[in-house]
Every structure is written in structure tokens, then in C-alpha cells.
Fold this sequence. Notes:
Blueprint: H1 7-10, H2 16-35, H3 47-57, H4 59-80
Amino acid sequence: xxxxxxxPILFRYRHPGWxxxxxxxxxxxxxxxxxxxxxxxxSVFYLIxxxxxxWLSGTGSAIAASGIAALTWxxxxxxxx
Length: 81
């Protein structure tokens, strides 16, 4: 399969798909964090989508992703304690 036509679209700077993927990944990590035992911490896994948003989507998306990740982590910790 030839991926050449998709490369300029997906890997261009600040594509909104990367921001949406980061937000979806944060939601998935939050769901796993909520479902897991409170003794297990998932705080490190929130950094992966934030770093991806910073690298592929720019500063604004990284700030938004970090805020959403912090609120998701806080909600999961509050709900399980």
C-alpha cells in the first residue's frame, strides 16, 4: 500500500487529528486509571499524549492537553478514593 498521499496530510505541522488523538488517548488513560486499583498509579501515562500533542500539534494544543490530562487525573483520583 502506498502511503505517499497521506504523508503530507498527517505529518504536516499542527494537524488537528493529532490533537484529537491526544485527547482520546488521555480519555482512555483516565478510564483505565479509574478502573484500576487505587494503589497503582497511572500518572506517567498521561505524559505520553501531552508530549505527542506538544511535538505534533504545537504549544496551544500541548497546553490544552496538559490541562485536560490534569483534570482527568484529578477526577480519576477523586472518584477512586
